[in-house]
Amino acid sequence: MWIDTHCHLDAAEFDADRDAVRHTARAAGVTHCVIPAVHAVHWPQVAQLAERHGDAYALGIHPLYVPQAQEADLLALDHALNERRDDPRLVAVGEIGLDFFVPELCTPHMRERQWLFYTAQLTLAQKHGLPVILHVRRSADLLLKGLRQCRISSGIAHAFNGSAQQALAFVDMGFALGFGGTLTYERSLQLRRLACELPLSALVLETDAPDIPPQWLYQTAEQRAQGAAQGRNSPAELPRIAQVLADLRGIPLSDLAQASSANACRVLPKLAPRPL
Q1: In principle, which of 91, 129, 132, 243 could form an S-S bond with 155, CB 3.0–4.6 Å?
Q2: What is the pTM of this model?
Q3: CA-to-CA distance for 103 and 32, rounded, in angstroms?
Q4: Tens of pLDDT along 219-240?
Q5: Is residue 254 included in any domain, yes or no?
């Protein structure tokens, strides 16, 4: 059994063949996907997709969507979490966090606004007793600061690419770290080393589909300039990504499947037991 702990199945890239994509992933052994929302307008769709495909979902406001979000959306999130509190498929608040990679989000005003939305959503997660799924991009230390101020029982640091010290700080707070397509690139030396050195109990697997394509789907800038389309990532790629990690750690693929799924269920407790 594989659990893709981060898959944006609601993305426009899947509009033409969304059900077929999910069917292919299930045939590859991906029994569950966690579909995190990125904006208030996405909340109904991710819930509907989770219901249709026997998956799970999270509700939140992604830092990339903070510029167009309204503070009223935080009140709407509180209402939605309360309204859906008995839905077993609602497993977390997410995708939330901080992004200091995109230049437009790094102005003093936008850094402050991101912090407001991040801490407010942490407070809502605490209020509703839910874990969080964190967007971590050049922001690990401040995310950890927020978690120290508003303790959350558990969660996932999605697409983690920080230092070993930062990784262990998240782990000490009950979080697992999400690893996906970036791990498949031979030049990802630091990330690969971290994925091998961390305890197996700290790792969960994800695709971030349709984004972060693994190495075998990636098109170079030159290829794209010649008309090649960037490869679309999908949850069906998860077992092959997992094989890369299993080979790096020198463990059987079946052991990784069992451990990563158990880890996902531990940090997102409503995943287990799950309705189909």
Answers
A1: 132
A2: 0.96
A3: 35
A4: 776 776 665 667 899 999 999 9
A5: yes
136 found inside a domain: yes
Please report where in the chains the tokens 């101020």 appear, as a residue: 149
Of 185, 126, 114, 182, the C-alpha closest to 154 is 126
- Residue span of the structural domain in which 93 resides: 2-271
**Cβ proximity of 93 and 128 under 8 Å:** yes
CATH of the domain at 198: 3.20.20.140
Q: Cα–Cα distance between 142 and 96 in angstroms, integer?
A: 13
Enclosing H/E stretch for 2: strand 2-4
* Dist CA 226 CA 26 (whole Å): 34
Q: How many domains does the chain have?
A: 1
Query: Residue 143 has which token pair?
Result: 């995310």
Of the candidates 85, 105, 102, the residue with the CA atom closest to the CA atom of residue 93: 85
